[in-house]
Amino acid sequence: MTGKVFFSVAMSLDGFVAPEDVPAQDLFGPQRKPDDPKVRRWLAQWSELHQATFPQRFFRENLKLGQGGEEGLDNDVARMTHERIGANVMGKRMFDAGELSWPEEAPFHTPVFVVTHEQRDPWERPGGTTFHFVNDGIEAALVQARQVAGDRDVRISGGGTTIMEYLNAGLVDEFMITLSPVLFGTGIRLFEGVDADRLGLEPVSAEASPRGVTYLTYAVRERNAA
């Protein structure tokens, strides 16, 4: 039995999953620009978007930030989401930013398949994360991810463009949005270019957190499916 293909993202109330694009080198590289107003704004908005996650015990454990942290619904959601994953898939832009910002022990602890045109040997990190670079498209990356995930789920980690490619290709079974009570006004929209004529959604659950976020889970269906 194979697991599901899903994505889970935090989203602002006006539909953005990230602030306006800023070069990863400016944010995280060795020549980063912490005093640049665009960088300061990006970091402030990103922190607001994920404000419910950072204080959680599981988040601190997973990134080796020490003991302590909050417990409750938000912590349970973070832990259960992580534990269902047998493999991750991501786009090259997300990997490029993460390569600059993730700790040595990257936070995935599964094989990760990077959809890219770059030829590169697998990159093994401590803690069970190995990045594999797939050069022949999103479906090939998913096939490889399913093979190693077994009966666990495959998460499409991001970024937004890669998520949309999988969603529009009919390859996503389910997704969860952590709806955060912030407004961006501009940025990277999650559903930009979605094939709305093809895709239908079936509500699975909605849970409100004491931290002000709402967890919305949907199953994805073909509109013409019986």
From TrEMBL:
GO BP field: riboflavin biosynthetic process
Top-level taxon in the UniProt lineage: Bacteria
UniProt cross-references to SUPFAM superfamilies, sorted A to Z: Dihydrofolate reductase-like
Gene Ontology molecular function, alphabetical: 5-amino-6-(5-phosphoribosylamino)uracil reductase activity
InterPro entries: DHFR-like_dom_sf, RibDG_C, Riboflavin_Biosynth_HTPR
Annotated Bacterial bifunctional deaminase-reductase C-terminal domain residues: 4-214
Name of this protein: Dihydrofolate reductase
Organism of this sequence: Microlunatus parietis
